[in-house]
Amino acid sequence: MGPGRSFMTEHECTDHEIRSNRMSDLELHGLNHSSMACYSSYPYMASLDQEGSANDSSSLINPYSDHESRDHKRLKRTISIDDSLSSITSINGGMISRSSSTNSLTTLPRLHFRDHIWTYTQRYLAAEAVEEAAAAMINAEENGAEQEDGTADGMRLVQLLIACAEAVACRDKSHASALLSELRANALVFGSSFQRVASCFVQGLASRLALVQPLGAVGFVPSKLNAKDYALMDKKEEALRLVYEICPHIQFGHFVANSSILEAFEGESFVHVVDLGMTLGLPHGDQWRGLIHSLATHAGQPPVSRLRITGVGLCADRLQIIGEELEAYADSLGLSVEFTCVESNLENLKPEDIKLYEGEVLVVNSILQLHCVVKESRGALNSVLQMIHELSPKVLVLVEQDSSHNGPFFLGRFMEALHYYSAIFDSLDAMLPKYDTRRAKMEQFYFAEEIKNIISCEGPARVERHERVDQWRRRMSRAGFQGAPIKMMAQAKQWLGKNKVCEGYTVVEEKGCLVLGWKSRPIVAASCWKC
After folding, report:
1. What does the pLDDT look like over 487-498, one tens digit per residue?
2. What is the pLDDT of residue 76?
């Protein structure tokens, strides 16, 4: 190909990634558009060729009408998002016209009406994705002429990321490598919020490119841990602790979970909590310290005579230390606590592993854990839910990331993750100074690890399989659970104010669940379930 080549057409991706996955088949299996978003080529995107004609008269396809574009909400600037999107094409100099895009559809064999609907739906969602990223960048930039330059660079970065993701999806190693080189030069760890999130996505794309096999091969080469990976464990633990202390995501889950547990324990003397994935790896059992304190100081109710905590996890020695600390803390408050450790992962956990006493009230607690056992076959999660159901808890508290990162197609997951983590990095901008090393640690050793797993891993290695709360609602219903509405909206808002959570975080109630979000973008959702 000559230098004037456009990097993506609908023929460049392989048959197994486009035509073999017809929309008609996907609709029959109930796959939603969010998981399909942007999977095939993005016909509206401009070419990355720098030698294109600057005077090209063709126009960018805009999913909004002209009237809607003019009235679009403006963000800290006088230009609209439509103008920002147009700047993408001016950077590259060449654009694809409506007619050429329409003609490209007719080149595919035996296209049906649903294929056209699918194609235009993808275009709309892809344009929407770029618009959201542009909005986040505009919010992050400073005022004045510097803002204009930063926004233009940011829009270029968005385009490069999507282009590189497409090249990786099509297994075009040479093109993807060239794009990664340019991305590395522009995605700065201490840059704007989008530059920082882009640096994490660059790591994920590079890892996926390194693992991908030549065209025609099936699957990915499994990655192996090396000495360097083990050396990073301490940094990852420190990053997790910082995320817990600075970001409200985990603390919000603990607050809602403990409030629901206290409600379930009202009037009971013997109570038992089973914690799946004990403490998330946090070193001190913070959630249970809060519960112990609340039970010991709860006025107006008969005191709890005994609290049993069963921690499920793979590091028994570490969990036992946490248990001993909790028992000592409870003893200082005059509350009897018995801690038991079950060394097992969730997939191998059996009902008989959990020791139950007659007359005690059982609650199961899962904070950011169950998404790790969501697999393509659904068998692993179904087994875990069936095991929990056999325990007959009074309530199951479920807290999970509220985003669709478990779609079957790489590009769909890529775009969903780009939306989600752009919002998180934008919130970190509002909470910490630009050159704060704590922010860099959280971003590079916690959120970047999640991003890399979502983007670069497949099969059993991909454990960050976050799903929307609606999908969890369907899964729980199929497993025999019934929703128990959480009625503590006022308390949740008070909690945001009491803990001085950064302005921009919101809590909304959605069909009995509480959802913590950043500027209307859902981050985590908490729900309760009964057998």
Report:
1. 999 999 999 999
2. 38
Q: Which of 120-129, 162-171, 509-518 has the lowest mean pLDDT?
A: 120-129
Instruction: Give counts: helices (H), strands (E), the chain.
Output: 20, 9
Instruction: Read off the tokens for 32.
Output: 């939603």
Task: For 376-392, write each residue's pLDDT tens digit.
Answer: 766 889 999 999 999 99
With the CA atoms of 401, 364, 530 and 518 taken in that order, what torsion angle do they form, in degrees rounded to the nearest 10?
A: -20
CB 319 within 8 A of CB 278: yes
| DSSP letters for 452-521 | HHHHH--GGG-----B-HHHHHHHHHHTT-EE-----HHHHHHHHHHTTPPBTEEEEEETTEEEEEETTE
Is the Cα torsion angle 523, 406, 197, 142 positive or negative in sign?
negative
Chain centroid to Cα 135, Å, comes to: 19
pTM of the complete model beyond 0.85: no
Contact 283, 290 (CB under 8 A): no
Q: Which amino acid is at 86?
A: S
Euclidean distance between CA atoms 303 and 337, whole angstroms: 13
Residue type, 257: A
What's the token pair of residue 258?
Answer: 């403990």
Dihedral over Cα of 406, 447, 13, 51: its sign: positive
> What are the beta bridge partners of residue 339?
309
pLDDT value, residue 135: 56
Long-range residue pairs from 295-304, CB within 8 A, at least 24 positions apart, any chain:
295/262, 295/265, 295/335, 296/330, 296/333, 296/334, 296/335, 297/333, 298/262, 301/266, 301/267, 302/267, 302/269, 303/335, 304/265, 304/268, 304/269, 304/270, 304/271, 304/335
Quote the CA–CA distance of 421 and 523 in Å, as a whole number.
Answer: 9
Between CA 115 and CA 122 the distance in angstroms is 11
Record the tokens describing residue 156, joined without a space.
Answer: 């270029």
Amino acid (1-letter code) at residue 464 = E
Pairwise CA distance, residues 6 & 53, whole Å: 13
Measured in degrees and rounded to the nearest 5, phi and psi for residue 399 equal -125, 125
Residue with tokens 């922010």: 439
**Distance between CA atoms of residues 312 and 273, nearest Å:** 11
Sequence-ordered list of residues with C-beta below 8 angstroms from that of 79, at least 6 positions apart, any chain: none
Whole-angstrom distance, CA of residue 164 vs CA of residue 158: 10
- DSSP readout, 176-229? HHHHHHHHHHH--TTS-HHHHHHHHHHHHHHHHHHHBPPTT--SBPPP---HHH
C-beta separation of 406 from 272 below 8 A: no
521: left (phi over 0), alpha (psi -120 to 50) or beta: beta
- How many beta carbons lie within 10 A of that of residue 11, not counting itself? 12
Smallest CA-to-CA distance from 6 within 37, 43, 32, 40 is with: 43
